[in-house]
Design brief:
heterodimer; A: two-stranded parallel ribbon; 8 strands; elongated; B: alpha/beta; Nucleotidyltransferase, domain 5; 4 helices
Amino acid sequence: MVSVVLELDMRISRKQFGASVPSMAMGDIAFLLLIFFVILAKVDDDSHLKLTLAADQNLVTGKLKRASVAIDEDNKIYLNGQPINSAGLSGALSNILGDSGKGKRTVYLKTHRDAPAQFYEPVIEAIAQAGGELHIVAYEER
Amino acid sequence: MQPLVESPASATSDIAFILIVFFLVCASEQPDKGRGQEFPSNEKTSETQKRTTEVGITTSAVTLNGAVVRVEQLGGRLETVLKGKTEARDRVVMVKTRSDVPFHQWLKVTGVIKDAGGIVTLQIEETTTKVVN
């Protein structure tokens, strides 16, 4: 009976540590996540496409684009980075441009420099049919 | 005398990171340089086609109203043809392009036409496919 009491007395009481999540950083984390998803959600990103722009002189800075059409080196057509065929391009562009007024219907066209006319001419025609204001993106020739 | 409140040094890296992200987003939104092309449309009336200046583009040559010209000469020739034409419909230049002409060649020729005061209009051949049973 005596020995049992001694054992109990020899126990060292441990200090309790709090393990709470620091709430101070929550705002920062939420903000960074928001920016991360906003960048990911950029639907008109066509930077992944493989194409070499044609060279031209006296280039001007385009107005803010409403849509971007691209033809890559395999002559595939893309609207805002998504593949599309030339037959459906005019309708899709009309939906994007809607009833926007003059000066707010800018459509960027990025075409691979060696793409043949049978691919880029129908695209230009489709942009015109949709009422888009064509801005041909080119490489500045010096 | 030391200031009573110092800026927290631990937040510097957070601020730097947010600034990097901010400038990356701004840089990606910069508009691309290029050339504005006026609205091209299909001219369908035969009367309009008769009086329209016509430029043909093939992979090896450029023609102005049927006559072969060098690209360097095209601008001067066009200025002569368009001289005195003030109305927009008279300055329309119909561009016929062969299906195999690369885009960089088309861009060069249409640039010359635009610089000469012409309004580029595309003439696209309509192709229809009929399935015969």
